[in-house]
Amino acid sequence: MPEMTADRWGVARSSFDVYLETGRGHIEAALRRSVTGMGEVIPSGLLTAVEDGVMGAGKRLRPLLLVTACEETGGRTSDDLYDLAVSVELIHAYSLIHDDLPCMDDAPLRRGRPTAHIVHGVHTAMYAGAVIIPWAAAWAFDSARRMGRTGGQARDIVAHLLEAAGAGGMIGGQALDLLGEGRSLGEDELAELHGLKTGALLAASLELGAMASGADSTVRHAIGSFGRDLGLAFQVMDDVLDATGSADVLGKRPSDAEQEKSTYVALLGVEGARAHGRRLVDRGAATLDAVGLAAPRLRQLARLVIQRRR
Questions:
Q1: C-beta of residue 47 within 8 angstroms of C-beta of residue 35
Q2: Which of 69, 131, 133, 160 is deepest in the core (most CB within 10 A)?
Q3: What is the pTM of this model?
Q4: For 246, which DSSP code?
Q5: Are 128 and 120 in contact (CB under 8 A)?
Q6: What are residue 4's phi and psi, to 5 degrees?
Q7: Backbone angles phi, psi at 5, to 5 degrees
Q8: pLDDT tens, 204-221?
């Protein structure tokens, strides 16, 4: 049974729930440090849009994965580790700002709030997203150096982050997503699209955590494979939630169906998609088993991905 503790009302909670709550608190503080640092180098009008995009409510899954991967592979927790972790969340935030633009998904709602281009205008939102990219790279490098990584190791961390964000990762997946609108994609095409658009940055979060701890290449490869399966499972469950939830519950519009996008639900049905998500998580866990990596909190995070309700 999981270790239990009590909150300030005396209600028992699992140690994993406390771990998540504590981790998210540290992540919010690190995001605030990063945004404050940006305020020293960009105009105030642009900073307001950046702050809205970065500090808006979110699951913070990617930085949680990075921190947990570092801890599970022998690394120490510190403010510097959380600073490194939020470099991934910064890239994720930029991608959402640009994803919502009229030239992309033209979305008016994200996380229950009006999107950046609705509030600040298209041009400001576009620039806000763009300025986050080099800042995330610089922030990651500085954080890695403060953690004790060498200059070469810090550069490798930055390169891996940007590779996952670029044409061979998230941006490439976004291009495939736009090209796939109005078409009926098969399972292999969907896996390729979402493996890039969603899976690449999720996998990189885990790999960066292992790089930060100094883990060997065997462990890093296993962590990355686990992350790619987890990233695809995340998207599968996103499709399930998109098909079964409301905009009020999910906090975003429009739905994939409204944009004529192919989904795992359209391909496999709701229950078939749920089963596929569970299979992906099981496959990822088997990769960890193969290298003898227990990583219980990573496995708990994976279960959280397929059990979430929003």
A1: yes
A2: 69
A3: 0.89
A4: -
A5: yes
A6: -115, 150
A7: -140, -175
A8: 999 999 999 999 999 999
